[in-house]
Each structure stands twice: as structure tokens, then as C-alpha cells.
Amino acid sequence: MLRQVWRRSVFKTFPTRTAGSLTAAFLAAGSPRWSSGGLTGGFKGILHPPSDRSQRLLQPQPARYLSMASGGDQATSTRHKHTNRLAQERSPYLLQHAHNPVDWYPWGQEAFEKAKREDKPIFLSVGYSTCHWCHVMERESFEDEEIGNILSNNFVCIKLDREERPDVDKVYMTFVQATSGGGGWPMSVWLTPDLRPFIGGTYFPPRDQGRRPGFKTVLMRIIEQWQSNRAALESSGERIMEALKKGTTLSANPGESPPLAPDVANRCFQQLAHSYEEEYGGFRDAPKFPSPVNLMFLISYWSVNRSTSEGVEALQMAMHTLRMMALGGIHDHVAQGFHRYSTDSSWHVPHFEKMLYDQAQLAVAYITAFQSGGFYSAEDADSIPASGGKEKREGAFCVWTASEVRELLPDVVEGAVGAATLADIFMHHYGVKEQGNVAPEQDPHGELQGKNVLIVRYSVELTAAHFGITVEKVNELMTSARARMAEVRKVRPRPHLDTKMLASWNGLMLSAFARVGAVLGDEALLERAVQAGGFLKEHLWDPDQQKILRSCYRGDQMEVQQISPPICGFLDDYAFIICGLLDLYEATFQAEWLQWAEELQTRQDLLFWDEQGGGYFCSDPSDGTVLLRLKEDQDGAEPSANSVSASNLLRLSHYTGRQEWLQKSQQLLAAFSDRLTRIPIALPEMVRALMAQHYTLQQIVVCGQRNSPDTASLLSAVNSLFLPFKVLMHTDGNPGSFLCQRLPVLTSMTQLDGTATAYVCQDFSCSLPITEPQELRRLLLDRTAVPEAD
């Protein structure tokens, strides 16, 4: 399906093809950073990897059994020397550790009670199944018999999947970042029996390396300190947690208003422009991440500043970044999709992990660039080389040697200069070299030696000129070559696929299918969006308890399974699904999705809203095992759930007429006023919500039969434009419909002469009725040229 959209020549610019590709292919692929912390509390100098994340996909694939450590897949009939409690879990990450020589417990009361009963410290290890450095630490330390005995005899060892329990992960990551200056996964934290952290870090090598303490040394020192200096450890941890409780409090003063949107947006643009890397696009130096929230802000900023140099610059920054990513090695040119991040500034050599939420957000970013001019979660970075061997290697599934390319593409191309073969043309275009195209400094473990990561080195026009053939011929040849290479990759050992399904990331993907399908008028993508919405409601919604469930799992027979008791959803699960449902309604005009969005918002308010300070807590405040009541204050690899909620509340207030939701949106933004004013670059998605409050939303009402061609034509005119501050509604004249019940004024809007008719309203004033799609498009363009502030 990805390739299908790339082939659609009717869409003239690459952002369209890329957006369609991202929503159509196998979609697996936050703002992480490198830092030089390590263990807090006296042991320094441990390098921990970038803080990356992974995600979930809705539809099942052929089963692979996840009983092997280090991300490997292996039949469940394998005999193991060790088996621990994690063998009874459903999380692929926990199952990867089920045969470690460590007495692992899952997060829960059994482990907590054991720690209190035996008065032992807790060792909490947090990661996720497609995390490269999590695999490394497992191979080096958790499979080591000696280290396993030290852990089991002196600690209560808990293994946590951060994707299942992001609330727990956030608490202890906040501690690690506050005490070490950085964070990442795997995360290693030592707790008192009452769950208070006293020492934390990330990845540790198994043995000492010069001045860097190994994991065994760290364990022995903690055991010694626990026995001889326990009171000081506990007191220090207590002081830090109290400071964190105060330092992480976000609230609005009574009567406080949100900051002025134009000032905040201008400052956010200036901060992004300062960090922008002009040659290859993107922000800051390597490792370089896609950062879709930044790109969406820049395009939105342009939409209200089109006539200014800053607005033009913002659009150029976003477009250049998207273009360079599409050309780079971070883009999988054979199977499509984008890898997690680039290890260099030119987007060439990626970390080969693919994440669903990257695909979802980038699909929206690319389709937005075009307008402006259930899935599985994640695919591992490591896989077994095609040449054989048991050891997994970074990128083995994706890279190529020059000899492989020559063997696969030997055909002489008729008319090409010098009797060039298809391999010659492909290698020229994609930068394939005989000795490999990965610099040694980008390959510290030597796993990519002699290998090539495909990156577009020349335009199609230059490649055509170099070989004396037409541009059309080059496109045809490259399509054929990529198809052959895709077939070869199918028989290579695949990377591990994390098959648990998370509500939040499927909500993001729901938005992607709905928005891309609407812009392209692609019924297949819209049908996938409807199926995704149905999957969420069937498998990740508990109608009896009226709660979203965090996750579900693929069984051995491809059935969808749930654990008992299930994990209840967190704020991001609600916020991302609600956003997806609103996008699905605007794409299909099926009111059932709007109705469910209204119900979910009501539940979200009840579960997570802070009545005193405004805004939403990340998790249920009544859970006593979660020590900090946090409000996510950064738009990173995923947007903050509070940022998304600010927009959801505003959109829903227009759909339902419920003014309390408009007020809640304003209170939420006021709670984040200080951060929005000082460092808006940390919250670009929330800045977009603030702009939406300032530039009053347009209400575009289409009156007509939902599936009629004239209604579709008006809808197509709306979807051809990027209109960041609008809601799109449909009425068929039925006064008993969901929307007419909420907004009785819609009953006064009727079709002209039986033809589908549009009305564009803002500030309680509506345009004259419009029946011609081009006239509607012109009106919307005129209104977006100089937006009016409220």
C-alpha cells in the first residue's frame, strides 16, 4: 500500500507520496538525548543511550514467540535452564527476560510485600522490547549467572515495561534526570521497600571499564551502603522526592489567563530557528530526531504569518527538513517508513528501530506539507544477519553490500551510457559503495562494516543525465529495483516485532489514517481508519467500567488477548483516542465517532482533571504506588497529552456547545503559562492549541446527504487546504441527529435547491450559502490569508 501511494502520479509533490506511504505500508519503525550521567549518588561517567520510545500496531501478523532474551524470537518448546515469574506475563519485554538467572517480579503487590517482609531494597529495571541498549544490558548482565545471583539474593528485582506503565516510568525517570542530568533506557533504579528511590542510573557495562564502574561493582557498593549507611540513603532519597513534588507542580493562579498567543508563538519560532540546522534540516546536532511536533508548529505558524519573512522562513524550515528526511537513510527506501533517529546530522545512518507513533505523526506532517504547497507497535533495531549466526546486529535487516546489489540487479539497461547495469544506476543514485558507505565513527561496534545504508545522493534528473536516459526511465528502474530488494528482505531474518497494542499510539495512527485518507480522498485508507476506531472500541474500551484500557496482546493463535486485571488507560490514551475520533468524524461524517469522543472526554475529566490547579494529571491520582502526581510538560517524540487535550477541549466545545470545555481548555493553558512564556520550544503542540484559542475556530458546516457526490466535492475542497484552526461539521437536515441536538442552530442551515451547501461561520457570523467547491475554496483561502484575533 505504501508503494501504491508512491506510484500515484496524480499527486505532484513528494509530501503527498510520503504521507500516503507512511499510512499504507507496514507501519512500525521522545526527544531523546545523549548525556554523560550514569549512576546518581557517587558513581559518574556512564554513557547512556538516547531516550527513545516505541509503539503499537493494530492488525495481527504471523505469530512469533517471544521467549528468547535480547529481543530474539524462538519457539516456545525450547528448554531453558532458568524460568522466572515473567514467563506468565503477556508483555513481550517481560517475556524476553523470563529465562534470565534473575528472580524477576513484575510490578505489583507480590513484589512490594516481599520487599517489606524481607526488608530488602528493590532493584527496578525499566525498558521496552525493541530497545537496543536494553538488549545489550540483558546479554551482558542479566544473563550472567554471577550477577543474577547477586541480584536475586540481595534485592527484590522488578522488571517493568515502560510502555505498559508509563506512569511508573515517568516518576522514576524524573528522579534519574533530576539527580544525574540525563536519562534513557534501560533505566536502573534502586528503591526502598516503600518504593522511594535512593539511587538511579541507566545502562551499566557488566564489569569495570577504567574509571567507569561496572554493574557488579555498583551492586556491591549499594549492598554495602544499604547495610552500613541505610538511614542516609533513605533520608537523601526522601529529600529529593519532596523537592521533586514541589518542583513538578504545575497550576494556574485563581483567575489567571493564558499568555498572549502571538507573543508565545513568535518566541517559539525564534527558539526553533536558533536550533535549526540549515544544511540538512532538523534541529540541533546528532543524534537527530524527526520531531514532528516542531514541524507541525512551523507550518501552523506560517499559516497565520504568510506575508512575513518569519512565516516564509518557518515554512521553508519545515519543508526542507521533511524533504531531507525523505531523501536520507532514516527513510527506509525499500520497505518505506522512517527509522527512529539518525546518528549523524545528514539523516544518513539511522538507529534502525521503527516506531508506530513516528509513522503516525510524520504521515500527518507530510500530508500537511502537501496541503500547504489496529497496528503493531514497533520493529526492533536488531536482527540476525542474512549470512547466519546467532548474534543479532544493528540494522542487519536493512543494509546492503555492494556485491549483494550487483548480484540482485545485473540487467544491462538499454540505452544507458557505458552499458550500465541496473546495479550501476541504483548504486549511483543511492550512494552504494564497494567498501560500504558508513563511516567508522557512525559504527562504534563495527556492525555496519562493508555495508551500505541507502540514501538518495542525486536527484532523479541528475541520475538520468549521468547515464543518458530519461527521468521517466530512472523512476521506472528505481521502482523495479526497490521491488526486487523488498522481496530479498522478506527472506532475511526479521527483527523482533513487539506485538502488544497500546491505546494511545493506536489513537495517533487513527488520526493519521483519517487525515491522510481525507486529503487524498482514499477510501481504502478511510476504511482502515474506521476499522481502527472499531478495534479500539471493541478491544481497548471497558463499557462496564467506562474506562479505556491501556493495552491488549496478540495470542499464539492470532487472537486478541487481555490480562487480568487489565491495565487501565492513562491520560495519553484518552487524549490521543479523542483526537483520533474527532479526525475520524471530520473524515467520514459518521456521528458515532463524535459521540464516543464526547463520552471519553467526560471520563477523562472525571479521572485526571486537577480541580485546584487546572490541567490533567498523567495518571489516576488515587494510585498510591505512583509517588508523584505529574503533568507532562514537554512535547517530545509524542505530543504531551495536555497539549492534545487543550485542542480536544476547544474542538469539542464547538461541536457540543459545552462552554465548560472551552473554559477547561483556557484553564489548562493558564496552568502552563510560565513554561509557555519562557521556553515555548518545549511545548510546540501546546503553542498550537494556544494559537487556536486566539484565532477563533472557523466552523465549516456542510449540508447534504453524507455519501452524495456533491457533498464529497465540498468536503474535498475543504481538505485540499491546510486549515489548522477549524472544525468541520455535517448536517443532513435531521433535527434529531447528534449534532443538531447539541447545536440547534444547525437546523436552520439548509441545502440550496437540493444541492449540497456549505456555510463558513466564525464569531457567531456565517457566510452566505455556497454550493460550488471552487467558491468555497476561494473563501477559505481569503479567510486564512489574514486571520482575525478574537
List the helices and strands and how they pair.
Layout: H1 2-6, H2 14-24, H3 92-96, E1 104-106, H4 109-118, E2 122-127, H5 132-142, H6 145-154, E3 156-161, H7 166-180, E4 187-191, E5 197-201, H8 215-228, H9 230-247, H10 261-275, H11 292-303, H12 309-327, E6 341-342, E7 350-351, E8 354-355, H13 356-371, E9 378-379, E10 382-383, E11 393-394, H14 402-408, H15 422-429, H16 460-467, H17 471-490, E12 497-498, E13 501-502, H18 503-520, H19 523-539, E14 541-542, E15 547-548, E16 551-554, E17 560-561, H20 571-588, H21 591-608, H22 641-656, H23 659-671, H24 673-678, H25 684-694, E18 698-703, H26 709-719, E19 726-731, H27 738-742, E20 757-762, E21 765-766, H28 773-785
Parallel strand pairs: 1-3, 2-3, 18-19
Antiparallel strand pairs: 2-4, 4-5, 6-7, 8-9, 9-12, 10-11, 13-16, 14-15, 16-17, 18-20, 20-21
Helix pairs in contact: 2-13, 2-18, 6-8, 10-11, 10-25, 11-12, 11-13, 11-25, 13-18, 14-15, 15-17, 16-17, 18-19, 18-20, 19-20, 20-21, 20-22, 21-22, 22-23, 22-25, 26-28
